[in-house]
Amino acid sequence: MDIVEISKVLSNKTRVNILKWLKNPELNFPPHKDIDHFNDGVCVGYIQDKTGLSQSTISTYLNSMQNANLVIPTRHGKWTYYKRNEEVIEAYVESLKTDL
Fold first, then answer.
1. Residue 55: how many CB atoms within 10 A of its CB?
2. Is pLDDT of 7 > 90?
3. Ramachandran quadrant class, 52 (left: phi over 0; alpha: psi -120 to 50; beta: rest)
4. Does residue 70 register a pLDDT over 80?
5. Residue 30, pLDDT score
6. Alpha carbons 70 and 78: distance in angstroms, whole number
7. Which residue intervals define the domain HTH arsR-type in the entry (predicted)?
């Protein structure tokens, strides 16, 4: 876990909001059409719709979040779903408490 890299990713309000929304996806996103659960996360399209930003911007944001290991992608056919990486998020928070 790279505390500086994660902090850079979290310096963007939209990326922070995405992580907040993914914490309780059933409360923040409509049900998926093809899958009846959120076990693998939320479809990129739903995240894009909620932010109101372009597909390319959201893809860039999710890619940076993935590179920092904050989210875990799962492919279902042509769609990618994202969920929080709770283990890394907890380690980051703990590192902030103990190291700073």
1. 11
2. yes
3. left
4. yes
5. 87
6. 22
7. 1-100
With CA atoms as reference, report the closest residue to 27 among 52, 46, 3, 11: 46
Looking at residue 17, its pLDDT comes to 98
Is 3-99 a CATH 3.20.20.70 domain? no
Cα–Cα dist 59/61, whole Å: 5
| Ranges of each domain in the chain | 3-99
Residue written as tokens 């902030």?
96
